[in-house]
Amino acid sequence: MRYEGMVFRPPSEADSFILQATIGCSHNGCTFCGMYKDKKFRVRTLEEIQTDIRLAKLYYGDVKKVFLADGDALAMPTEELIQVLSILYKTFPGLRHVGIYAGPRSILNKGVADLTRLKENGLTIAYLGVETGDPELLAEVNKGVNDKEMVAAGRAVVQSGLKLSVTVILGLAGRDRERSKRHAEETARIINLINPHYLAALVLMLEPNTVLYRKMQSGKFALPEAHEILEELRVMVANLEVENCIFRSNHASNYLALRGTLSQDKAGLLRLIDSILKNGDWQLLRPDYLRGL
Q1: How confident is the model at residue 186, as a pLDDT?
Q2: Model-level pTM?
């Protein structure tokens, strides 16, 4: 397939045909993210996209899952996205799933009405990076929206009927215990307000081409250690009050792989975390050399 630069996708889209509807990220300003620094954002032409879909048909046959890249493909005009969805479903009769990365500002720009239209035309799930619910930290990492806007964006996706998968990042507050606790509590707060269908907790890992990495190099930021990440995770899970939300911390960056449905499995998840923290069973954690982005 024809791809421009590095291509990224959520872990759950591992078996999807990745279609670059846009190049780069429309925001591309988050201090912790280095994924799209080598690209200038643009929406690809319908002709380019159609060519890639035809190639995918030749290579893969009847595709069942598609993921629309790059970092914020939802920024594409609604009518053009609907055209792409129409072509996909006509080309692949067995298609049952189309996912998309969705920036919070792009979600707000679309609104519930346009999101509902996209759902009606075959979009099935949106992936939203919430990262933190702490208003101060959200501004520091330059996410582009405040906490109230983030909640509004998440709720708009849920109200449209699309599935919503949210990611948060443990460790963004550094090693300051008070800030870490606030980050965990505030993140749980806005996740409760959004009540997404899926929630994934990742652990901060820094790349050299990021603002936060340079801050760490200058001594103004320190990455938390494994036990501090686990303590932060414990606070967040303890404060989550969501229903029928599939929770995972099995990304390659995580020290501890957890899985369950909240709130049904909340007590069991907390018991496991507490057992490791109390007994110091650090051998149960993924070692740093096996962690990755």
Answers
A1: 98
A2: 0.95
